[in-house]
Write a structure and sequence with these properties.
Low-confidence stretches: none
Largest sheet: 2 strands, antiparallel
Helix content: 10-25%
Number of strands: 4
Strand order of the largest sheet: 1-2
Length: about 70
């Protein structure tokens, strides 16, 4: 599946980071972060999941390690 490419990603999210599985676009990507999953249609059905920078930006997801 091709990942969406929003133009407004911060430069830090364009850099390679942790390589892992994104549960939103269902593929492997760089800079995957663990996020708390909202109770919405279309998202993975688990309390915590990995999300790539593009999916975090498009779905307004915040990594759980970032301060509130």
């Amino acid at each position: 599946m091709t990942q969406p490419q929003p133009d407004n990603l911060p430069d830090v999210d364009r850099l390679a980071g942790v390589f892992g599985y994104c549960h939103w676009c269902e593929g492997y990507a760089s800079n995957v972060r663990i996020v708390a999953t909202p109770d919405r249609e279309g998202g993975p059905k688990r309390p915590l999941a990995g999300a790539c920078p593009q999916c975090r930006a498009l779905n307004d997801l915040k990594p759980i390690s970032d301060p509130s």
